[in-house]
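Hi C.,

You asked whether I'd gotten around to modeling the 341-residue construct. I have! Everything is below, sequence then structure, no commentary in between.
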Amino acid sequence: MKKPTQHLIAEVPRRSSRVGMTIGIDLGDVWSHYCTLNEDGEVVDRGRFRTSPSGVEKWFTDLPRVRIAMEAGTHSIWISEQLQELGHEVIVANVRELRAISHSDRKSDPVDAEKLARYARLDPKILRPIAHRTVAQQEALTLIRARNLIVRLRTAAVNAVRGLAKPCGYRLPASSTLCFAKRCVAVLPPGLAQALGPVLEQIAEMTKKIKHYDRLIKRLTETEYPETQALIQVYGVGQLTALTYVLTLGNKERFQRSRDVGCYLGLRPKRSQSGDRDPQLGITKAGNIYLRTPYDSGVCIWPRAEASSPAIGPSSPSPASWQYCFIASGSPRSHTSRSME
């Protein structure tokens, strides 16, 4: 004889532990607002503090261990790391999952801080927490992004020089960006040389800066991030791509499966299933754009835990030492359609 439904529900064990004090922080560039909830979910304090290391230390050093929730943003990397060093439980929420905050019709900094605190108190999984890379890894990744900025500025300058020369009846010779300035100076007429000469000097200077960045990146791969040497052995993968991949993933142990990395990089197809309708959509593009598009246009990188790989070399039997597998493809979309089947 079946038990009544109400008896079955009564037999389900309930969690007896109560969440202590919870704080939600809405990060701002100059000021950050916070809201504090007690064990009963009542607001006991509101306020703001300077978005600076000294401001964080002033407000959170003397507090007992509490649960703190904040949105992922510009300042969330160093603030979350500083709060963790102070002994607090820190939850960094995925902004894409917080439409109730970002699309609210009564949005304000104090209200957003209270919503973060209530979500964190109810169930942190609602916030879809993310794991930040360390500040040291972010500093190394900033080196790569600064190089990318110089490369884009140089490309824009080269295109501008070619475009400004054409209305005057001159077509500049085809050349690589490494020797573009030197070749153009030799063929420009005096009138254009006076106007475009300073721009060509800047192009040559940017080329030197890019080479300097390349030397710094090579030094990082050989000293601070030796795991990149295994990636460089794969054909088509250089020091820049390898270092970008390692720094973007951060702690690789947080990925339980190799397919999770594809989702993290935005290579997972979108899904909008409802009833019998389940259309095939494009990739989410939710990952890091610096790895997925500029540096990963021809190679998709996936970590794989396996005993050994002929292209990379023997691996450690420890689960923490993952090998890396590089899968060449024409585009991320085509690779996704194959790998997600």
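If it helps when you're writing up: The beta strands are 22-26, 31-37, 43-50, 67-71, 89-93, 299-304, 308-309, 313-314, 323-328.

Thanks,
B.
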